[in-house]
């Protein structure tokens, strides 16, 4: 019997635990550890941050849903991991494992800029449930006495979609409340151009985002580095001061401390290097899924940016890891697989929306992708709302990507995973 421990119960961890349970016989133990008691559909947090949706509508109680699918759930914070001895330490126990799947998600690097963050600084965030609730409180207070708004992304940020969604939602809400004329909105991004999204050329995304900004009279500041924040202003690296009464800036990400402190496990920022199989290159017992995986930036940009890992990519990684662990345990036969890493991103702007498809996320050596598509319209907003409900239903039912969803992706040319076929020369040597 093998014990497989999944650390983290977010968009990557919970699907990974479900897929492992689906593919491995019950003689193998699956344990899910999370420092949060609830699963959160993170893509909807911008709506929570503006009071447009209650947090409980996008959360599930892990202690209720996980055990009924044959998975042991432990609500605890991991304080250390030792890949050599294959041990995980929590506050009140130490757990041995045969395989560990790390899917913690990121730690927010709020110390990257002075004044960044809601607890010890002057900015809001929608990167986790607690921060989204704090943002909604600050937003309600702002509405009583409105003024200038700044939305954007700090140098080193890697997930830009929520910033655009938040800015356009603010415009939509203020327009409905007949306050838009009282509130100048500035969007500041470390991207080399708006719509870069950390992944480079995306069809007409650059021009679409610029048009959205212009139509909504949002001042756009591209390729701009923020230096620090004060209670009433955002200061730029070139010395300019942008007045602000409400600020939401996405911070850079890094790996949690317990990962950074494990010798040889992560890079300098705490992200886990992985082989195409999503196993660690040096520790055979370690696999990783989601935002915590190391992913090289698509290109060097004047101001540092990272590459995003969206929800579909995390699900692909979950399928990959479960399959490859099952292969190692002799439960299945065949080839190892790897994720194809397509990125599909829905953004709901209230009165319209935008959909971005990068196939694959990382372009080839020549800088090209199979497909790079951008769509917009109110139907995208409807699709995102529908997908939120569908994904939460999957997590209740214990599904990762069911057969009909995989069939639909294959039908539009998105296979999700692909086999790693050894070269003919290697096969001959082994033969």
How do the strands and helices of this protein lay out in sequence?
Blueprint: E1 3-7, H1 13-23, E2 29-34, E3 38-40, H2 45-49, E4 59-61, H3 62-65, E5 72-75, E6 78-82, E7 87-90, E8 94-96, E9 99-102, E10 107-108, H4 129-144, E11 149-153, H5 161-176, E12 185-188, H6 205-215, E13 219-221, E14 226-230, E15 233-236, E16 241-243, E17 246-250, E18 253-254, H7 257-260, E19 286-288, H8 311-328, E20 337-339, E21 343-348, E22 353-359, E23 371-376, H9 378-397, H10 403-411, E24 417-419, H11 424-430
Parallel strand pairs: 1-2, 1-9, 2-5, 9-19, 11-12, 11-17, 12-13
Antiparallel strand pairs: 3-4, 6-7, 7-8, 10-18, 14-15, 15-16, 20-24, 21-22, 22-23
Defining traits:
globular, 5-stranded parallel β-sheet, 431 residues, 4-stranded parallel β-sheet, 24 strands, 11 helices, alpha/beta
Give a verbal description of the structure:
There is one protein chain. With 431 residues, this protein is α/β, with parallel strands linked by helices. Helices cover 28% and strands 23% of the residues. The protein is built from eleven helices and 24 strands. The strands form eight sheets. The protein has a five-stranded parallel beta sheet, covered by helices on one side. A four-stranded parallel beta sheet has the order 13-12-11-17. Strands 6-7-8 form a three-stranded antiparallel beta sheet. A hairpin with a 2-residue loop joins strand 14 and strand 15. Helix 1 runs parallel beside helix 8. The longest helix is centred in the last third of the chain and has 20 residues, at 378-397. The protein starts with a strand and ends with a helix. The relative contact order is 0.14. The model has no long low-confidence stretch (mean pLDDT 94).
């Amino acid at each position: 019997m093998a014990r497989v421990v999944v650390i983290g119960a977010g968009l990557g961890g919970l699907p990974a635990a479900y897929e492992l349970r689906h593919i491995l016989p019950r003689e193998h133990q699956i344990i899910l550890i999370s420092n949060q008691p609830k699963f959160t559909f993170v893509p909807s947090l911008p709506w929570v941050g503006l009071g447009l949706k209650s947090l409980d509508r996008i959360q599930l109680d892990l202690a209720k849903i996980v055990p009924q699918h044959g998975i042991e759930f432990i609500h605890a914070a991991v304080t250390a991991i030792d890949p050599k001895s294959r041990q995980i330490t929590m506050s009140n126990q130490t757990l041995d494992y045969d395989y560990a799947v790390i899917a913690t998600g990121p730690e927010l690097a709020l110390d990257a800029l002075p004044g960044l963050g809601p607890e010890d600084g002057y900015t809001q965030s929608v990167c986790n449930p607690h921060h989204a609730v704090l943002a909604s409180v600050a937003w309600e207070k702002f509405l009583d006495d409105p003024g200038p708004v700044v939305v954007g992304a700090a140098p080193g940020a890697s997930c830009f979609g929520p910033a655009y969604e938040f800015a356009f939602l603010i415009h939509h809400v203020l327009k409905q409340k007949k306050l838009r004329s009282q509130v100048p909105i500035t969007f500041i991004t470390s991207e080399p151009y708006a719509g870069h999204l950390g992944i480079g050329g995306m069809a007409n995304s650059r021009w679409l985002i610029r048009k959205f900004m212009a139509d909504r009279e949002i001042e756009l500041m591209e390729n701009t580095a923020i230096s620090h924040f004060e209670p009433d202003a955002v200061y730029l690296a070139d010395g300019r001061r942008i007045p602000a009464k409400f600020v939401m800036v996405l911070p850079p990400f890094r790996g949690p401390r317990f990962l950074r402190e494990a010798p040889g496990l992560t890079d300098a920022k705490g992200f886990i290097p992985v082989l195409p199989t999503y196993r660690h290159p040096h520790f055979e017992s370690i696999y990783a899924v989601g935002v915590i995986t190391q992913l090289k930036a698509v290109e060097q940009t004047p101001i540092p940016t990272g590459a995003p890992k969206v929800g579909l990519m995390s699900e692909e990684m979950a399928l990959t890891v479960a399959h490859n662990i099952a292969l190692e345990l002799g439960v299945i036969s065949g080839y190892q697989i790897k994720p194809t890493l397509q990125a599909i991103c829905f953004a709901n702007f209230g009165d319209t929306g935008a959909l971005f498809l990068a196939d694959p996320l990382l372009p080839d050596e020549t800088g090209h992708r199979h497909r790079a598509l951008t769509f917009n319209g109110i139907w995208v907003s409807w699709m995102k709302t529908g997908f939120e409900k569908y994904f939460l239903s999957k997590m209740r039912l214990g599904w990762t990507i069911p057969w009909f969803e995989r069939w639909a992706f294959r039908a539009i040319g998105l296979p999700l995973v692909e086999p790693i076929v050894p070269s003919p020369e290697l096969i001959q040597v082994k033969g």
